[in-house]
Each structure stands twice: as C-alpha cells, then as structure tokens.
Amino acid sequence: MMKKFLVLPGDGIGREVCEAALPVLDLLNLPIQCEFGEIGWDFWCQEGNAIPAATWHQIDMADAVLLGAISSKGKQAAEAELVPTLQGRGLRYTSPVLQLRQRLELFANVRPVWRLAGQGMPFRCAIIRENTEGLYAGFDRQGVPESLSDWLTHPNLARSGLDQAAISVRLQTRFGLERLFRYAFDYAGANGYSRVTLADKPNVLRESGQFATDIFLGIAAHYAGIEAEICNVDAVALDLVRQPQRFGVIVAENLLGDILSDLAAGVMGGLGLAPSANIGHGRAYFEPVHGSAPDIAGSGRANPAAMFLTIGMALRHMGFAAAADRIDGAVLQVVRQGRCLTPDLGGASTTQDMASAILQAVTRP
Amino acid sequence: MMKKFLVLPGDGIGREVCEAALPVLDLLNLPIQCEFGEIGWDFWCQEGNAIPAATWHQIDMADAVLLGAISSKGKQAAEAELVPTLQGRGLRYTSPVLQLRQRLELFANVRPVWRLAGQGMPFRCAIIRENTEGLYAGFDRQGVPESLSDWLTHPNLARSGLDQAAISVRLQTRFGLERLFRYAFDYAGANGYSRVTLADKPNVLRESGQFATDIFLGIAAHYAGIEAEICNVDAVALDLVRQPQRFGVIVAENLLGDILSDLAAGVMGGLGLAPSANIGHGRAYFEPVHGSAPDIAGSGRANPAAMFLTIGMALRHMGFAAAADRIDGAVLQVVRQGRCLTPDLGGASTTQDMASAILQAVTRP
Ligand SMILES: CC(C)[C@H](C(=O)O)[C@@H](O)C(=O)O
Ligand SMILES: CC(C)[C@H](C(=O)O)[C@@H](O)C(=O)O
After folding, report:
1. Alpha carbon A297 to chain centroid distance?
2. Which residues line ligand 2 (CB under 6 A)?
C-alpha cells in the first residue's frame, strides 16, 4: 500500500535541509507518495495561525508528517502586535509544534542520542518525553485563586499576597503515564535496549513521584527482560554528561524531558545530529530538534544530517526499516569519515556538499 | 569579632572530607571558633529526625554552618519502618537539607562552576537556584481535588478520573523572586560577572514566565553594568554543555536550578570539585554538592577538593576573603599540577594525600 508522506518545510533552515535531504526518497524507491504543505511564519501573518486550515486537512490524510522548522518570531510578533494584517485582533500565539502534539495526541516525543567512537566514550540511548500533559498541560497563571488559598499556604505567599504570585501545575494522569511507559518499554525492546530509566524527582515530589513510580513498575512487570530503574532527574542530568553509556531508554515528564533531551543533544555534539519523532496512536510527525536557526539561515551552513536521520525515523515508522537503516548508515559513514562536514561539526562544507556526500553513501555504502 | 563556625560532618564521606580539609583552618589562623555538632543517620534512628534538637540550637548560634553529607537512607528506612526504635511511630522523613533550607529561609543556593584550561574550553560561571519555593514548595499530591476540577480540564484527566492523577504546583512569589534576583545581581557584581541569565520556560509557561520576567527586569534596572538575559531552560542546558563560557550567573527556579547545577557539575568534571552555599539573610550553610557516597565511603577515595572549596565559600561569607582566595588558589594549583589527584579526577591518590597536597599549597603557594 502506498503511504502518504506530508512534508512541511516551514521556515529558515527548515526549508534548506528539506531540500537537501529529501532526494534520498527518490534513491530509495519506496511506495511513498510525497506531498508538500504550508506552515510557518507567512501563515501566521496571513491567518493568525502558523498552521493553515488546509494544512490541517493534509495532516489528517497523511501516514506521517515531516516538519522542517517553524520560526519562533510568531510569539514576539503576537505580543508586540507587529504584524499589520493582524493588528487589533488580539490573537494569542500558540506554538505550532504544541498545537500538533496536543491536537493529534502525539504522546511520546522520541529523541535518539548517540556518539561515535573518537568523540569521547561512544554511546547510544533514547529519551522519550511525555508530550501531552505534565507542566505543558496549560495550567499556568498569574495570581493564586481564592479557592486554592487554603491549600497553598506558604510564608512567601503570605508576604506577597495572592495576586503577587504565579502558579504552574504539573498534571500527570494514569492514562497519560500508562501509554507513555508502555511505549517506552516497547521501544526499548524493539531497539535492543535492556534498561528503561524513569527520570523524575521522587525524593522531593514524593506523592506525584510515587504515583508515577507505581504506574511505571506496574507496566514494567509485563516486560521481563528489561530492567526498570527510577532515578532523580538531577542525577540523570549529571550522568548524561559523565557516563551516558549507562543509559538505555530514559523516560520523563514533558518539561523534564525537554531539558534532558536538549542536554543530551549537547552531549552528542550539538543539534546538527539530533532527529526526533512525535508519536501517537496512528499519527506521527517528525522533525529535526534544531529550529529555524535565523542566525545561519540562507548561508548554506545548516547541517542536513539531523534531517536525514529524521526522514529515517519517519520511514521506520511507515514500515521501511531497511531503508531507514541505509540512511542511518550513510550519515554515520560521512560523519565518521569526517571529510565532508558542516561548520557545526568542525568542517567547512556547505549543506549541499554534506547532503551530496550522504546521498552518495546511501547509493554506494 | 570572633566568628562561630559550626561543623556538622554527618555521614559517609562527609566525615572523611571534613577530617581531611578542616586542618586548613588552623593554617589560616583566623578569628574563628570552630564547634562540632551532630547530624545524620544515627539521629534519624534515635530521634526520628536526622537533625537533633541540640543541633538546631547550635545552628541558631552560629555565623555559618558547614555540612559534610547526610545519608539518604532515611527515606527508605522511614518507608519500610526499618528502624526498630522508630517502628509504629509513623514518622515521615523530611530531607534534612530541605529542613535547613526552609526553616532558616536560605533562599539562594549558590553553586560556582568552573573548568581549567586543558580539560576543554576553560570557563567559570555560577548557578543560583531559588531554594524555598517553586516546585519544592510542598504542594504535591495524588488525586485532583474537586475544587480544582473546573480549572484543570484535560482530556487525559477526563479519561483517568480525578483520583487517578497527581498534581504538583510550582509556586513563585514576588517576595521570593525579588530577593533571589537581587541576590543574583549583587553576586554577579561582587564576583566580576557581566551577565545574569534567567533560565525558565517562558515560551510554554507563559504566565509564570511573564511574571518572573517582569520582576527580573525590574530588579535588573537597578544594576546598570550587568546584562539581563532571559532564556528557555532547555537552551540553557544545551549551552551549558556546548559553550558554558557564554554564561556569567544563571538564576533559576528550585527544580530547574537543581537540574542545571548537577548538569553543570557534570560539565566541570564531576562532583569532586563542586562546592555550594545556601544563603539567607544573616544565615547560611555550606556543603559540597556530592552526598555521603556510600559506594566509596571508607575506601579513602573521596575527593576532598569540593570540601576545601566549600570551606572557602564559608570563609568568604564570614568576611575572610583573602583566606578564601588562598584555599581556592591551592586547590587550583593541585588540580592543575595533576600529581596528586583522587580517582574521580583520573589519579590514584587517597583523600588524605590529596588533602595534604592542598594544605601544603596553602602554606607555600
Ligand atoms: C518550541 C518549544 C515549545 C518546544 C518545547 O518546549 O517542547 C521545543 O523546545 C522542543 O523541545 O520541541
Ligand atoms: C537531597 C535533595 C533533596 C537535594 C535537592 O534536590 O535539592 C539535592 O539534590 C541537592 O541538590 O542539594
């Protein structure tokens, strides 16, 4: 069956790396029908939403969605009412990636992390972040409501007054955690990892930590060969820097996972090699972790490797594992050889040159 | 005036590094009266609190408190009712360091971070973490109370039911943030830093982010020569790994600061070189960031450098800056020479040997 693959290049280097990496699909000759859609800054200016209605329709019809990058100018523009066409409409900017994650219920944000020998101790692991609840659930406000003032007693609050405070609620649910943990253990099994680590803060957030721990161990009991470990998130951050090779899959709440995965991208050598997948039941979108990078857009300096690896993740998701392996292998080969690297990896090649080298390695490994 | 310095060696390697490093006080010949007090696991077993009442009294009389480390066995023991003397008393374990921070209102947790040339790009910066509110304010529970069910509407919660969920509230107050930011800018000024970065998540936690941002910029306006920067915490985590030299002082909410400071300890080469200060108005305690380290306790492998640097921070706090400089200089010298290092730094020296080298460098720099 033909798979529908929707490509949304978006803004800045998102467009550039899409253009550089997508030819790999032609080389691989797969039963995939590629379609392009519009997203990004221009549509924010025209419609007050970076994701046009027509694109939502395309997304609904696709088997997988590939996203380049979306400019984060929208938020500032919305606040400053900078866009003439939108002035006075009092629009509130909602990050397009958060819209995608929430509306499509893409509950697992998967970020594989790895380092080749020669750049420090080699390792590979994956961070799986909860993507629909936690501190991103949307309960963040200035002022403490009267109805909470009995519960939230604190000396600092008494001194400040209820209106001179802000609260943010981290919401975690059995439904949300069960599907997340199940996914994490399945992913570990499918990718040859023998340990899943829950990174939270049970030594301080005792009750929510216990809640997550109980659910985690309940799910773990169904996965005999995989070790379930519970670890304080600060210790995980330290170990990701010092001994990342000790991890298999790390699973964490939305904001904690956000921090750990950017940190892990740092450990693996920057954002240039970091792909990601946002997975739901029967829905998924894929994007390199780097953003639209306005500082280097148009200069030919963007590293296309993350986009190649991201396409690989999308292909794997659509059932083309062998093709994904070929892409992964080609990227590793080019990085290992070190002859054709973009400046972020210490080389002097352009986006196009590095992409050509990877494409060649796909054809003749 | 004679200063009162209370030393609480505590458990595990806490005792060992105190014993190894404290002789530096004799060498420096300062108007300090040193007193010892009891804290730790034994007192948990006897009194159901790791901090005995007599120690609280000593703390109240001291100008500064030095803490070695406290075993974290208490929590497990409390849960399992493992301690015969305490059985059936239904005691709840509260981390002694959290008790100290909250009861003494030590609102700023200061962790200087640095790396010498030769171990990667050299840098020095400091992480200042809010220490009394945020996600550590104590509002963490299983089950969503009816009174919140109007506000906390979320598809996952509807599917799970109010009792199959957990919530954790991050509370931030004007009072708490103003004193924190003021301290951070003062610290930057006093220590030669030209930038203070607020690490939060304003692009997602919009309202609390805006609240903190407004207060931050309000305080910053009083510090003309120091740049105020607001940054998403995930980007800060990435930059701490990739380009830590870009930071001066980083200031963050309690849990975010906890994660960033452990991550930064990783970047600087591990916990062996990481001191910390917990500062309030007229009160302070100082501790190395490493814990009691039961895995290496008693083996003579503990790195005493963090304790030396921690004593330095305490001396600086009590007004003995020149003495603190001598300790810092001696530690740097020994680390730089690389002849007498404990195993965590790649050497084969014992705690005592490395301490002796540092003591010698204090006497004859
Ligand atoms: C753009 C932002 C809302 C997003 C997040 O915080 O999830 C980004 O940092 C990411 O990690 O994909
Ligand atoms: C022991 C624990 C409660 C503590 C914390 O989380 O603050 C520790 O990790 C620290 O950073 O001092």
Report:
1. 21
2. A 203-204, 234; B 95, 97-98, 258
